[in-house]
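Consider this one:
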Amino acid sequence: MNNIHFIGIGGTGMSGLAKICLEKGINVTGSDIKNSETVQKLRNLGANIKIGHEKLPEGTTLVVYSTAVSEDNSEVFDAKEKNIPLWHRSDILRYLANDKIVYGVAGAHGKTTTTTMLAEIFVRGERNPSIAAGGKLVFEGANGKYDTKGEILIAELDESDGSFLKIDVDTAIITNIDDDHLDYYSTKENIDMAFAEFIKNVSGKLIVNGNDKTIMKLLKDRTDYITFGFKDCDYTLGEIFVQNYRNTAKVYYKGEYIGIINIPLPGVHNLLNALGALALARDKKIPDDVIFKALSIFQGVGRRFEIIGLKKGRTIVDDYAHHPKEIEALLIGAKSFGYKRVISIFQPHRYSRTKQLYDEFIRVLNNSDICIVNKIYSAGEAEIEGINSENLAKDIGGIYIEKFNDIVEYILENSNEEDLILTIGAGDICEVGKMILESL
């Protein structure tokens, strides 16, 4: 276990786990298809990283891969040839969690934001948590953090490939359950069954969205849970309003007013994320003043309504939303901030998801004033006949633009002051926002 190699070390989840290993004193090597700021930060911490996939470094004792890595990867092949153990990233998370009490965050949408809000609260509350998140913690500048002084690990748990069932969880937040990742589960029933097993496996308390009917149905055999939501829950939100680009709501516990959530993120969905984090933090006896202060100074998370820059009256924001419900919440929230126009630059993620949710994508993207659709980011999937961005753009009434440079050119010619320019998707569309900022 003293020489761990990460394939795709610059990836969202992998980089955080690699950083935790480095901070634990483990020797880390890795590979990735391209250089990046994340890769360079890991190098600065001591990781030996090469660009491209070839042979494994001498002395490698364990290889870590993610679902995105194919079985014909040369380094996977090399590990098998040399009988070096191959672990999925969830296996290394389970190993890193062995000596910690795990507070996990699961759900179809809102996991990363809720995880980072929870992390911010526990850091401000001086609980010294270790953290494994699916997005960059702005206050940490990375996706992960290992703290030798604390006994807690706050972990985002990935349901996309069923791997969230591998982790022993003490306390869990479940944000919602939805019909995402059907490429893995095939049916909504299979998704529900996976969450039912997850619920059964949580050894301690559950903090759940009480307005999610599926979650409440799956809780039928449990009594040790706390609910949060808009109504008929232990924790509820009231009197929601937007002021000075901040989202605000009063919080009630069993009908009694306890304080005000005030966050710099748009949308009621983000208030709900904050409420879930608050509920768990209160259950762990973190004082209310610490919780509300931490949420008020929450610095956000990479690729979740991340402000790339403001220039010439335009605001450029990037968001990871890739499911219609996430996009709908994003656009409604963005419009509540009072921009003159919202220009969406959407990159569909996976052919299978685009096909399965095609009509929903059309419906929600119509909330944009202008919608540019970029080529589908395949994430390794084969093309599906008839499923393409040209057709999607046409059916939305938007504009199909394939090349990033051409998108930038269109924005330079057609955007105005007070416009919000919003890049949307789980692929590499985030690069466009940076290009626009540099070109304005």
Notes: The chain has a mean pLDDT of 92. Residues 221 and 412 are 57 Å apart (CA to CA).
